[in-house]
Write a structure and sequence with these properties.
Length: 92
C-alpha cells in the first residue's frame, strides 16, 4: 500500500474527504518527523513506538570493487511494533 492508497482507505473508513484524509496523513508524518528530529519518541499504545537509535561508525565494503569504505555514525529512525499489532498480524 502506498500513500495514495492509504489516503483512500482512511477516507473510506472515516467518511472524510480524500483531501482531509491526506492532510491528516501529512500532519501525522510531520509530527512524528519533528519529534524524532528532537530525539524524542512517539508511542501509540497497541500500535507501536517510533524512536531513534544511534548507529556507530563502521567499516563496510564497496560491493562493486570490494574496497573498504568508512561508514560514518548516524542517528536512524526505528519502529517497534506493539503487542496488539503483533497479535493482530499473527492471528490465525
Amino acid at each position: 500500500m502506498n500513500k495514495t492508497e492509504l489516503v483512500e482507505a482512511i477516507a473510506k473508513d472515516t467518511g472524510l474527504t480524500k483531501a482531509a484524509s491526506e492532510k491528516a496523513v501529512k500532519a501525522f508524518v510531520d509530527v512524528v518527523t519533528k519529534e524524532l528530529k528532537k530525539k524524542g519518541k512517539v508511542q501509540l499504545v497497541g500500535f507501536g513506538t517510533f524512536e531513534t537509535a544511534k548507529r556507530a561508525a563502521r567499516t563496510g565494503k564497496n560491493p562493486q570493487t570490494g574496497a573498504a569504505i568508512k561508514i560514518p555514525a548516524a542517528t536512524v529512525p526505528k519502529f517497534k511494533a506493539g503487542k496488539a499489532l503483533k497479535d493482530a498480524v499473527n492471528k490465525k
